[in-house]
Write a structure and sequence with these properties.
Length: 162
């Protein structure tokens, strides 16, 4: 099958493939220290369950990454994916000034992807993103293998930061 015809497997990064637990402390401060939070991302350990799923998905699908991380984190993000042996694929990131909730930004990108290709699966830890994607007809795997963080969930929904 031609690469352009392969279905897509779309993966979130934070708490799906990358364990953010070591940098949660930056979100527990008031005000939240977003610069430190994102600066620590290159040190995230990979999450075994997510890595296994992305590697198995790459056998039949083209992998793409859909993250709420801002564009200014692109170089660190791409380097992290390469360092941990994850499949190459387009990385979709939010604009540096985009503060919309992840459920809106990610769903808009998924819909755009689905206009030209079959999106076989979305893997994400954000329950609101997963709910919206399922309502829109996408097949979703809820990444529940990372430790939950109330601060990160609040940041994803209210501050549109990741």
């Amino acid at each position: 099958m031609d690469e352009a015809q392969r279905p897509l497997a779309v993966f979130d990064l934070d708490n799906t493939l990358a364990d953010t637990a070591h940098r949660q402390r930056y979100l527990e401060r008031r005000p939240r220290d977003w610069s430190a939070f994102f600066a620590a991302a290159p040190h995230d350990p990979p999450l075994r369950q997510g890595v296994e799923l992305v590697l198995s998905s790459a056998e039949e699908c083209e992998v793409q990454y859909l993250t709420g991380r801002p564009e200014r984190c692109r170089a660190d993000t791409v380097e992290w994916l390469e360092r941990h042996g994850l499949p190459p694929g387009r990385v979709w990131m939010r604009r540096n000034d985009d503060r919309r909730p992840a459920r809106h930004t990610k769903l808009a990108i998924l819909r755009r992807l689905a206009r030209g290709r079959q999106v076989r699966i979305l893997v994400d830890d954000d329950e609101l993103v997963c709910d919206e994607a399922e309502r829109a007809g996408f097949t979703v795997v809820r990444a529940r293998w990372a430790a939950e963080s109330a601060e990160l969930k609040d940041a994803q929904e209210r501050e549109g930061r990741t």
